[in-house]
Design a protein that fits this description.
Length: 336
C-alpha cells in the first residue's frame, strides 16, 4: 500500500507540516530534522502525491522548459540537468516548444499554460531575449529563469563568459600557427552569435591578424547549416587552414563537408566547435571545443527558478566557468 505523508511524519516523529517543508526544500529547517525526515521517506519509499500537493499549495509542481533551439544535443544536455533539479525537489518537467512567428509563440505558450499551468519557466537561447515570450510571461506574472541571456541585469538564471572562452580557443589555434581561420556564426537572434564572434575578432586583433569578412559565414546552429557554410569557406580561392564553428553541431557538419571533398581533418583543415555536447566526443576525429557545462547550467537555472517560486525576490544570476579542450580535430598547419 502506498505510504502517506502522515506515515512519514509518524516515523520521523515530526509534524506533517515539517515533512512538507523538507520535501519542498524550504529554508529554516534544521539539518538534523531534515535528515530524520529524509530517512523516513527512504525507508517508507514515500512518493509525494502531486495532485494533492497542488490542491493544498495552489501550485502545479510543474516547470516548463520553453525552447525553439535547433540543436538537439544542446537541448538534451539542458534537459538532463533540469531533470536532476526537478527530481530532487519533487517537481515534474514538461517540454514546451514554441514556433517562430510572434503570434505563434503566444499561442503555443497559452496552450502550455492551459494544459500544465507551470509554476515557472526556464528559457534557453534565443528565447531568453525574445520580447514576445518575456512579455507573455511578465503579463501572466510567471517566474522565469534564463540560460545565457544577452543582458543578465535584473534576471535570474545562469551565464558564462563566452567571449573569453572563444578568445582562449582562438589563441590556441593561433599558437599552433593558424593565421587564416574561418568562422561560422550562429543565428543573429542568439546572444551566443555575438559573444562568440566578438571572441573571434578580439583574438585576431590581439595577434595582429587582419580581419577578413570573407572568412565569416552565417550558420544556424544546425548540422546542415555547418555543411553549407563549410562548403562556402572551402570554395574560397584561399580556403582557411582552420574553421571555428560557433557550436558543435555545425562543427560536425564542417567535418562531414571536408570528408565529402576528400579532405582529411586535421591534416588538410583543422576544425573546432563550442559547447562540448556528446557529439564532440562521439565523432572522429574527436572535436576540439569549448566545454560549456550545459547540463550543470540546466540544473542551476532550475534551482534559481525554484528559489524564486518559493520566495518572492529569491534566485540570482549564477556565473559558471568554461574549459577549452584541444582534441584530435586540430593541429598545426603545414608550412606554406
Amino acid at each position: 500500500m502506498r505510504s502517506r505523508i502522515e506515515d512519514v511524519a509518524a516515523a520521523a516523529g515530526v509534524s506533517m507540516k515539517t515533512v512538507s517543508r523538507v520535501l519542498n526544500n524550504e529554508p529554516n529547517v534544521r539539518d538534523e530534522m531534515r535528515q530524520r525526515v529524509m530517512k523516513a521517506v527512504e525507508k517508507l519509499q514515500y512518493r509525494p502525491n502531486l495532485s494533492a500537493r497542488s490542491l493544498a499549495g495552489q501550485r502545479s509542481y510543474v516547470i516548463a522548459l520553453v525552447y525553439n533551439n535547433p540543436s538537439r544535443n544542446y537541448l538534451m544536455e539542458i534537459q538532463s540537468g533540469m531533470l536532476d533539479a526537478c527530481r530532487d525537489s519533487h517537481y515534474n518537467l514538461v517540454l514546451a516548444p514554441v514556433g517562430t512567428p510572434k503570434q505563434r509563440k503566444a499561442d503555443d505558450l497559452k496552450v502550455v499554460f492551459e494544459h500544465f499551468a507551470p509554476d515557472g519557466v526556464v528559457l534557453i537561447p534565443p528565447l531568453t531575449d525574445d520580447p514576445a515570450v518575456i512579455g507573455f510571461l511578465e503579463a501572466q506574472d510567471v517566474p522565469f529563469s534564463c540560460i545565457a541571456p544577452k543582458h543578465g541585469e535584473g534576471r535570474i538564471g545562469v551565464m558564462m563568459d563566452e567571449t573569453a572562452a572563444v578568445l582562449e580557443l582562438m589563441q590556441g589555434l593561433i599558437g599552433q600557427g593558424h593565421r587564416r581561420i574561418g568562422h561560422i556564426k550562429g543565428p543573429p537572434s542568439h546572444g551566443a552569435c555575438h559573444w562568440r564572434h566578438k571572441g573571434y575578432k578580439d583574438a585576431l586583433r590581439k595577434a595582429g591578424i587582419a580581419f577578413d569578412p570573407d572568412l565569416v559565414v552565417q550558420g544556424a546552429f544546425s548540422f546542415e547549416s555547418g555543411i553549407e557554410a563549410a562548403n562556402a569557406l572551402l570554395d574560397l580561392p584561399r580556403p582557411p587552414t582552420a574553421i571555428f564553428a560557433a557550436n558543435d553541431d555545425m562543427a560536425a557538419g564542417v567535418i562531414r563537408a571536408a570528408c565529402q571533398r576528400g579532405l582529411v581533418v586535421p591534416d588538410d583543415v583543422s576544425v573546432c566547435g563550442f559547447d562540448d555536447t556528446p557529439i564532440a566526443r562521439h565523432i572522429y576525429p574527436a572535436l576540439t571545443t569549448v566545454r560549456q557545462p550545459t547540463s550543470e547550467m540546466g540544473k542551476l537555472a532550475t534551482l534559481e527558478l525554484l528559489a524564486r517560486i518559493r520566495t518572492q525576490g529569491g534566485g540570482a544570476m549564477v556565473h559558471v566557468e568554461h574549459q577549452v579542450l584541444f582534441r584530435e580535430s586540430t593541429r598545426a598547419p603545414d608550412p606554406a
